Amino acid sequence: MLRIVTVLMCAVGVVPVAIAGEQSLICFGNEPSWSVHLTEPGVARFATPDSEPVAYRGTATRHGFLRETLWRGSPAAGRDLVVWLQDVTCSDGMSDTKHPVTARVSSPDGRFLSGCCRAAEAAPAVTNDTALEGATWQLTGDKPKGLAQLTRPVTVRFEAGRVHGFSGCNSVSGGYHLDGEHLKLESMANTMMACPEPAMSIENAFHAAFSGTLRYAVSGDNLSVSTTAGETLRFVRVAAPQLDGSHWKVTSYNNNRQAVVGVIGDSDITLSFSADTVSGSGGCNTFRASYTIEGSGIQFGPAATTRRACEEKLMTQESLFLAALASAVTWSIEGNVLDMHRADSERAIWAVAK
């Protein structure tokens, strides 16, 4: 019977494979940022910027006719990780680089993620990449000319070929490669929030300095990056951001009609986080709800609100905002920006620090 099943599987092009034996891959995606390393036989390492990589042990099944591979594995405890790999050219959406494999991931927390994969053996040889990657770096007070007036913390984080950060007014992201002591930054994209001068001019100066091929060195908790203009950007390793104790003013939210809209006029929508409770104003009433986090994942409980009556447009806005908050499943903090997304990767909440 086993022989008959095996013959049938081969007849339709479905055969078990060792993924690392065929192709060693590093897969990654954005919003939210994630990576899966398929570089060891029978092992996948899944990571997000706010959590340590988790190893999953499993197997892959290859469908030759469809040119697709399904990898499925389990951790020591918890839910499975499932990765679909398709031999279709993929664009990461942030640069002109084309990658050979398109990836879809069903993460243990129930999210469905999409991204690209590159061949691990194609990655440039590196020296101190493990010291550079996986940490949050903040630009120190010793800034070059043109950046001396930066008042908001500028941060960058390097992970699996993607760099994310906050440049003083807007969030920034893009691709990178490490080649020995050189850091090669690909085209960078940033959000389009407008800030009063001189913030915009200073941010533009940072973008100009933090671009192209740069020389870098890590010494303990210090990172130095030499720019093409001969100046040096100095960063210090900082702890990952925490929600507990943070306070935010919401500037936009998802209206559940595939649009992220701004807050009406001068109405004030706020968020304040304690260890396990979020509270604030919905623009009319105050509210309180429980929440739990695991790495970059977040889950909110039902919100309790006061019963004040306001004009209809504010009541509608409040209802949509609370629905958007409840839909959030991931969170990240870059500089003074809190960014939360839904399970379908659409933005749920955008807020700035108070």
Brief characterization of the structure:
About 15% of the residues lie in helices and about 50% in strands.
Describe what this molecule looks like in 3D.
By secondary structure, the chain is mostly beta strands. The protein has three domains: 121 residues; 110 residues, Lipocalin, CATH 2.40.128; 107 residues, Beta Barrel (Lipocalin). It has five helices and 29 strands. Strands 20, 21, 22, 23, 24, 25, 26, 27, 28 and 29 form a ten-stranded antiparallel β-sheet that branches. Strands 2-3-4-5-6-7-10-11 form an eight-stranded antiparallel β-barrel. The longest helix has 16 residues. The protein is globular, with a radius of gyration of 22 Å. The termini are far apart. The N terminus is likely disordered.
User: In the residues, how many domains can be counted?
Assistant: 3
Q: Give the biggest sheet.
A: 10 strands, antiparallel
Helix content: 10-25%
What's the pLDDT, averaged over the residues?
81
N- and C-termini, Cα separation:
67 Å
Poorly predicted ranges: 1-21, 122-128
Quick one: how many beta strands?
Answer: 29
| Tally of helical segments | 5
What class do helices, strands and sheet pairing give? mainly beta
Strand content: over 45%
Output the radius of gyration.
Answer: 22 Å
Shape, principal axes of CA atoms: globular
Please name the defining characteristics of this protein.
Lipocalin, 29 strands, 354 residues, 3 domains, 5 helices, mainly beta, 48% strand, eight-stranded antiparallel β-barrel, disordered N terminus, ten-stranded antiparallel β-sheet
